[in-house]
Specification:
Elements lengths: L20 H8 L2 H17 L15
Helix pairs in contact: 1-2
C-alpha cells in the first residue's frame, strides 16, 4: 500500500487502518451518516468488486 499523503485541508498525515466495515463506522466517529456511508461502501464492494458478502469479519473477531 502506498504511503498516505497529507490531508490537503490540514496538512496532517493520518495513519491508515485496515478494519472490517462494521468497525470503520465506529472508528470514523461520523455518526449515523458515517455508518450509512460505510454500509454503502461495503455493499458496493460486494456488488461492484465481487467481494464475497460473508467474508467480512464481524465485531466478534476484532
Amino acid at each position: 500500500m502506498a504511503r498516505a499523503a497529507p490531508d490537503p485541508a490540514t496538512g496532517r498525515q493520518y495513519q491508515r487502518l485496515l478494519v472490517p466495515p462494521a468497525r470503520a463506522g465506529m472508528l470514523l466517529d461520523w455518526g449515523e451518516h458515517g455508518h450509512r456511508q460505510v454500509a454503502a461502501a461495503a455493499e458496493a464492494a460486494v456488488v461492484i468488486l465481487g467481494l464475497p458478502r460473508d467474508d467480512f469479519p464481524n465485531e466478534e473477531h476484532i
